[in-house]
Amino acid sequence: MNESLVHSYQKNKKRYPSTESESKEMEMGSNNKKIFSSKKEDLFHVIHKVPAGDGPYVRAKHAQLVRKDPEAAIVLFWKAINAGDRVDSALKDMAVVMKQLDRSEEAIEAIKSFRGLCSKQSQESLDNVLIDLYKKCGKVEEQIEMLKRKLRLIYQGEAFNGKPTKTARSHGKKFQVSVRQETSRLLGNLAWAYMQKTNFMAAEVVYQKAQMIDPDANKACNLGLCLIKRTRYNEARSVLEDVLYGRLPGCEDGRTRKRAEELLLELESKQPPPDLSDLLGLNLEDEFVNGLDEMVRVWAPSRSKRLPIFEEISSFRDRIAC
């Protein structure tokens, strides 16, 4: 009987501390487990970029990022908006998920209908989402109007909520963006929108403005394409060589350099219009050549020199770079 009691005591000795020191050790061990569990949970949120909590917005992010179920995420984002749970983030994130599911039209209507529930600080980021959605849907006119609106806000000093910089995020990394950089970026997007409408004259002017403010290699390639489309080959060559010779920020990007090379090849394939004085080996007189030029000038349809970009924001056309 005594042997049985001894065996039972030895078996349960670790479970039932007999001294104060042993009791403290067990308590510390329990606390360590709680701390480890808490750190493990925090690490989960960091890895999956899921916020902590148990509201509809957190469940929506869990469905989006962990379960990879975008349809369920949209349902939960709607619940978060209706419940007033992090409405700013819920509306923006829902629109992004809708865009991924080719439901951009629905996302546009959602932002237009519910952005009034969002804070003033979130309106700028919602505008950026709208611009991407318009681009996805091919709504070029709406995209142009939104870009003009954002440029007006910059001119009026209302961009970035009155601050000189803002924090942006790209590929999971945060970085600071200045008003100058944002202005150049918006002008580049506006020029690209004009290119989609084949208005290469307006696109060229806007790209030139963007490069004056904050030049980069990507916009230089687009400017080169505009100049090629307008048969201004020497200027296009000069712009594209700036990219290949590494004279602009972003030239180290392999894709950008490759695009510049492809545009130069396209440029080489273009032949300038033949010199009239050499047509069929004839030596045409200057008076005759001038007469041909005058005939072309008269017959060619006149084009307004006023660009669409400046029809509504002409008051700050030459001051946008400031």
| Residues in β-strands, percent | under 5%
Helix-residue proportion: 55-70%
Main β-sheet, spatial strand arrangement: 1-2
Distance separating the two termini: 96 Å
What is the gyration radius calculated from CA atoms?
32 Å
Shape field: elongated
Low-confidence blocks of residues: 11-17, 33-48, 276-284, 303-322
- Tell me the number of helical segments per DSSP (H or I, 4 or more residues long): 14
Give the SSE string: HHHHHHHHEEHHHHHH
Task: Determine the mean pLDDT.
Answer: 79
Largest pleated sheet: 2 strands, antiparallel
> How does the helix and strand content classify structurally?
mainly alpha
Please give the number of β-strands: 2
Structure description:
This protein has 322 residues and is mainly alpha-helical. The chain is built from 14 helices and two strands; from the N terminus they run ααααααααββαααααα. It has helices at residues 2-12, 20-48, 56-65, 70-83, 87-100, 104-114, 123-137, 140-155, 179-196, 200-213, 217-229, 233-244, 254-269, 286-299, and strands spanning 165-170, 173-178. It has a two-stranded antiparallel ribbon with strand order 1-2. A hairpin with a 2-residue loop joins strand 1 (165-170) and strand 2. The radius of gyration is 32 Å and the shape is elongated. Mean pLDDT is 79; it is low at 11-17, 33-48, 276-284 and 303-322.
